[in-house]
Design a protein that fits this description.
The chain has about 325 residues and is an alpha/beta fold. About 40% of the residues lie in helices and about 15% in strands. The strands form two sheets. Strands 3-4-2-5-1-6-9-10 form an eight-stranded mixed sheet, sandwiched between helices. The relative contact order is 0.14.
């Protein structure tokens, strides 16, 4: 197995992926691990980084019990850098940087510590580096998401209404996954906007516009950028151009019904209208009971059930985000929904 720390053997820079979504329990870690394994099987050198500081468990998803080295060693300065805590997994071409055994203050690291980790992630030699983010929209989560080349949001659809008894329709409470994904993207957007505005030296202009947002009819980020352009075309165009670089990808996980297949399109359209940014649909992944079975067995679903609906859909997602070969399975994976 080629050592990803040896730059002389692998000179080009890695593609950095950050996987988030705001809400916990939507399958971010399962999806992140599976994407990395799928690409590693192609011969791509992949590194998993568990950035769920304070709640790290990514090592269990690759069947590792007690990681011998973790980010704690870096924070304690027991090691010089991330390359010193890279762990080989039992999967060829796949390494792990674990966040297990975290110190109490690691959930909210100092800004300099966070930036040190981000810089060192970019210094690692691999084809792909996947950062598994924690739940929520803290600055730490947002900054990892914005630092990556590719940001991926994982969302779970609303469950279907159920009937009980015959003449009484009882609606299952709507989960907060979609709502949290919206709040997560809004937080990401404004975090980036603040940095771009500061970079352009436009803080005073933006502050003045926000003071008069009611009179000006500013109800969305799109309206704000529009008014900035009307006041300063040069700043407005530069701002719009840099904000357009924010183009996250979307994965709808645990799809159960045919109507769930349109959720990604609806979210993408809403984001264009409200934020004036594009959200690219990466794919849908069906609900599959084998995922839970594989988690209990501490084995990745792609490894334990390689012919499962989850594995089939995940491979489609990977071919969408990293196309290299023709689609080999021509059947309609969603015909039964």
């Amino acid at each position: 197995m080629t050592d990803p720390t040896r730059s002389e053997q692998h000179e080009h820079k890695a593609r950095i992926w950050a996987v988030g979504g705001g809400k916990g329990g939507v399958g971010k870690s399962v999806v992140t691990t599976s994407m990395a394994i799928a690409l590693a099987r192609r011969g791509e050198r992949c590194i998993l980084v568990d950035a769920d500081l304070g709640g790290a468990n990514l090592h269990t998803f690759v069947g590792m019990n007690n990681p011998e080295r973790t980010l704690t060693d870096l924070f304690r300065k027991d090691v010089a850098g991330l390359k010193d805590i890279l762990l080989s997994t039992r999967f060829p071409n796949l390494w792990l940087i674990s966040g297990a055994r975290a110190l109490l203050d690691m959930a909210n690291p100092a800004y300099q510590q966070k930036m040190k980790v981000i810089r060192q992630i970019f210094s690692l030699h691999a084809d792909h580096i996947f950062i598994d983010l924690g739940a929520g929209s803290s600055y730490n989560v947002l900054d990892f998401f914005l630092a990556a080349h590719e940001g991926v949001m994982v969302v779970v659809p609303t469950p279907a209404p159920v009937s009980s008894p015959p003449d009484c329709r009882v609606v299952v409470p709507t989960p907060t996954s979609v709502e949290n994904a919206y709040h997560f993207l809004k937080a990401v957007y404004y975090r980036r906007l603040k940095k771009v505005v500061r970079k352009l030296g436009a803080e005073k202009l933006v502050d003045n516009l926000l003071v008069e947002k009611v009179q000006r009819g500013i109800r969305s980020p799109r309206d704000l950028v529009r008014d900035i352009q009307s006041n300063s075309r040069e700043i407005g165009l530069a701002l719009a151009e840099q904000m357009a670089e924010l183009r996250p990808r979307l994965i709808i996980n645990q799809v159960k019904r045919g109507e769930d297949l349109t959720l990604g399109t609806k979210i993408s359209a809403a984001c264009r209208d409200f934020f004036a940014i594009d959200v690219d649909m990466a794919g849908n992944i069906r609900t599959d009971e084998r995922v839970l079975a594989s988690l209990k067995a501490r084995r990745p679903t792609l490894d334990m059930f390689p012919s499962s609906p989850f594995a089939d859909d995940l491979e489609r997602v990977v071919r969408t985000i990293c196309p290299v070969t023709e689609l080999t399975n021509g059947r309609d994976a969603y015909a039964e929904l």
